[in-house]
Amino acid sequence: MAAAPALKHWRTTVERVEKFVSPLYFTDCNLRGRLFGASCPVAALSSFLTPDRLPYQEAVQRDFRPAQVGCSFGPTWWTCWFRVELTIPEAWVGQEVHLCWESDGEGLVWRDGEPVQGLTKEGKKTSYVLTDRLGERDPRSLTLYVEVACNGLLGAGKGSIIAAPDPEKMFQLSRAELAVFHRDVHMLLVDLELLLGIAKGLGKDNQRSFQALYTANQMVNVCDPAQPETFPVAQALASRFFGQRGGESQHTIHATGHCHIDTGRTVSWAWGQVPYALSWVGPSSLWAQLPSTCPQAQQLEWVKNRYPGLHSRLQEFARRGQFVPVGGTWVEMDGNLPSGEAMVRQFLQGQNFFLQEFGKMCSEFWLPDTFGYSAQLPQIMHGCGIRRFLTQKLSWNLVNSFPHHTFFWEGLDGSRVLVHFPPGDSYGMQGSVEEVLKTVANNRDKGRANHSAFLFGFGDGGGGPTQTMLDRLKRLSNTDGLPRVQLSSPRQLFSALESDSGQLCTWVGELFLELHNGTYTTHAQIKKGNRECERILHDVELLSSLALARSAQFLYPAAQLQHLWRLLLLNQFHDVVTGSCIQIVAEEAMCHYEDIRSHGNTLLSTAAAALCAGEPGPEGLLIVNTLPWKRTEVMALPKPGGAHSLALVTVPSMGYAPVPPPTSLQPLLPQQPVFVLQEVNSASRPPPTKTDGSVTLDNGIIRVKLDPTGRLTSLVLVASGREAIAEGAVGNQFVLFDDVPLYWDAWDVMDYHLETRKPVLGQAGTLAVGTEGGLRGSAWFLLQISPNSRLSQEVVLDVGCPYVRFHTEVHWHEAHKFLKVEFPARVRSSQATYEIQFGHLQRPTHYNTSWDWARFEVWAHRWMDLSEHGFGLALLNDCKYGASVQGSILSLSLLRAPKAPDATADMGRHEFTYALMPHKGSFQDAGVIQAAYSLNFPLLALPAPSPAPATSWSAFSLSSPAVVLETVKQAESSPQRRSLVLRLYEAHGSHVDCWLHLSLPVQEAILCDLLERPDPAGHLPLRDSRLKLTFSPFQVLSLLLVLQPPPH
């Protein structure tokens, strides 16, 4: 007779079921304890240690020594290879057999010379399926190899995930045995865990919650773990519950396998290649059941080079639609700091790689974990064939909750893309009921969007989806009381969202992350290397393009440039250029930058030599201007013996000029020479004369006055007599702040750091005249920042230059301090303007709302400007990104001193330059944009091994100052056709027609997209070596120029 039903107490019933599936309690008699049956030790175990990353074929030839369970290996960053010899007992025929392996570190199983699965405790992959059913004729003995990298999924931090790696950490093998796996027990555990999740997630006020709890309780009643014949009855109870369907209005969750890997954050580039194989070789056994994504081309290239067999399998899964490349970029780059051209190259390299290796380009941009999103990204996406974007990082906002999960994003130029933030606020779901319910409850676009993404798989350190996650989600496919769950590709998700997008809202402008704004400043040397290498590659491409057009013998260095660009793009990953990486990765980045500099300078010299070939003139130097406007500037030209001499040179737009003879340096008219005056004690002066040691620099355009400690007391625009420095204030004021964030040390600077402001006061008498005037005037001073840190600075004013430069050297040895420099302006405006990629935007100078206040520290590229009607003050820089304008004070962030994850971050010597430019009228009309470019792209003095040209020459020029010719390069796809690609953008924020003047032998001109695909209707008429181009505000245009065949 059946037992009479009993009145159930909620807590005891819940805990009864929890104990029945617990891995900790009552495992001698509960269901979890029956997951594995009979077991036996491995037949033999041996290993060897190496500090190197060895390929499989080399590793298996090494000398393996006997090892045993419990052995230790290491230290950090080494690799331990295990040879595992197995003999499966005859009695296990007909059963599923696993190798159970538990060790610290990241393991990779090799079978028959191919990687077959990852093993990691952190990623809950602790067994490898040898066979799902041992057959009568299956071999009983086999040998596997397990490659274990001595680091965890999140590196090897000591004590926390952001701590610096512990170089002496040792690792241990704690389990290595064969065992029978009971798949029916596993499926019952999945069902019981899901029922528990439904009961707890829906709560005591929900009828369906009690149905789930009572079903689980009844399953415990009928299921005897020691008698497998009772399992089908319990399974039937679960199936009846999960078979009860929901209604048509259910929210649909699109579950996609996902593996986010923080390339370079916690492990070095070389060591980080193990997680890629570990993450994708595991899901390969699942891909017959689900679509899984990979968003970074660089990682797939590493897999291709190191694991070619795995790469071939990925290609096959991609053909079946089970492996889905997404994102379209080379790496998941930072969304703030890379230049506009670098962002284009991320897509150009990424999309071309995906097309070449997997047969198609990506239709979704996928950037789940970066620290903000530039307002130009929608236009860049459009230009690369992408209209869909997925991310989730704004869920980390510290102050304001972003109001949408599904919306249209309108960029700086008006381009719109469809954006989705997974409402579960994670890219590493595990398929739990709690996560499924959160996805629905958290959705801020209820009523406007009835579909959501659910990205499941271990992330950050890799790992990817597991079979258990997949089993959970399949069971929840359509169950009453829960949203519908379907396994989907990103294309299916976005197609569903697009089909019902009529009610979606639009967000205009940048997507600013209200967190991690310390990353605009941390690791200043990385940021300087990034900016310099962006410049070098720009210059190399331009000169190589000109040499290609003018010389039939010149070979464009396409392969070398692709390699150098990919190095730069790799280090624009969102944890590298931002400075939130470990020390070894920072050191690798600096080595990469040095490679780019070295090879780039060689390529510059080669291109310059080709440009000079056949030109009459003396041997010597070629002065090159790589910017699209004529420049007259003071240069320091090299002399024999290593000395330098100053010269005033004029170089045409994107062209070259010969070195001027010494006799042409004077007179300087119409420019006024620079005058330098220092107030000093003199016997001829009457006593009332002020003799405080201050210095005045004056070039007839601006007049600069420095007090005896180097602070700026006056900056006057000479023509109007307008003072730029606020009354009673001083500029060039260095300030020091305490900088202790809540947790994310290298990442965050908190608003409360502003309450700890301490001006750094200099000592009178340290200011001295440097260069005494004429072409250049300067003054320099020393400043003791603290007992451990010091600064020296030269303040420089050149003839004809509209800005004063501050060449700065800092020896920085601090802990949790933040150094900035401030310029209080005699300007009033509620908005300041900041340069971003291919344009600029405004941000408030006040804290009216929480959205304003949350932007107390923002990012900019080469300049920021504070203007009122008729006058403004711009602050330019050559390698800084952190900035702010509060009220009328322009502040440039210089150096931080975080101690995690890299305790050495920013310690040591730094050199950088910033500049101050007062101007009449708007910053557009005053040439601030051009001035910032000039500061960042100095004129080049390149050696000419053959006779240097005797006359100036210009390749390109523009009729409008509103348009910038940003890039000139060879086309990617058709080197035989001798084609160039030009990239231009409208920089003022205006509609404008512009004539592009060409001096190259151009046969045909065609508009193309950012991937260099020609527009069928984009043919442009060439009139008298000119092309007419029409721009809307901040529009980016690309041109394909087909060059005439070279003369034979």
Detailed description of the structure:
The protein is an alpha+beta fold. The protein folds into seven domains: 73 residues, no CATH class; 146 residues, Jelly Rolls, CATH 2.60.120; 257 residues, Glycoside hydrolase 38, N terminal domain (7-stranded beta/alpha barrel, Alpha-Beta Barrel); 94 residues, Glycoside hydrolase family 38, central domain (Substrate Binding Domain Of Dnak, Chain:A, Domain 2), CATH 1.20.1270.50; 41 residues, no CATH class; 240 residues, Golgi alpha-mannosidase II, domain 4 (Beta-galactosidase, Chain A, domain 5, Distorted Sandwich); 93 residues, Immunoglobulin-like (Sandwich), CATH 2.60.40. It contains 19 helices and 55 strands. It has a nine-stranded antiparallel β-sheet. Strand 49 and strand 50 form a beta hairpin. About 1% of the residues have low confidence. It comes from Macaca nemestrina. Its cofactor is Co(2+).
